[in-house]
Predict the 3D structure of the following.
Amino acid sequence: MPEKILVVEDEPSLQETLAYNLKKQGYEVSTSGDGRMALDLARSFQPDMVILDVMLPGMDGFEVCRILRKETNIPILMLTARDDEIDRVVGLEIGADDYLTKPFSMRELMARVKAQLRRSQIVREELGKLQQKIGEPPHEVLNFKNLSIDLTRREVTLDGNELALKPKEYELLLFFAEHRGQMLSREFILERVWGWEFIGDSRTVDVHVRWLRKLLEKDAALPSRITTVRGGGYRFEG
């Protein structure tokens, strides 16, 4: 069964070009040029990935992304005509997985689409491996002292209190948990959690680690749970 992609772009020529090229690659494609209509379509079409323009009529792409991220963990690739770092940061903070500035080459977009879909598949497979290791269906929980990761509910608690993690923060923590005690380079984390395969900026990893530390550490300036390996990357101590 082909993977399904929802293209949300209000420029007719670009929407048509994206749909045509994605279909040539074997994907099933649905399109929308309106933010509010795109939400309804996403719920009915159930795509494996969304390509989402920022500037949309009805509801802008940021708000669409924010709502979608509450409902699904599928990859979201945002498109914008503005090369503004603030836009990229906002997009990542509300849950976008990748960001591409217009104009862009179709080859680069296709590479990012494939990387995101591959990353999504890897996350599902690794979650399945974790569940098999635990072997306590139907409710699987990873415990690290006062920290618990509920794989069934996708919830994280610290001292019994639920933490409000963004989807990417949860995926990063889960990845750390699977590789407890191992030194993980920024590039390796970026490739496996974001799926960019070095297309993205490794500083994105630092930002998300900083957010996790604020939530998980007693003193984020002196972390003991997610430690920095000088010249290497990060290590999750549990």
User: Anything to note?
Assistant: The mean pLDDT is 84. The radius of gyration is 18 Å. The helical segments are 12-24, 35-45, 61-71, 85-93, 106-134, 167-178, 186-194, 203-216. DSSP finds eight helices and twelve strands in the chain.
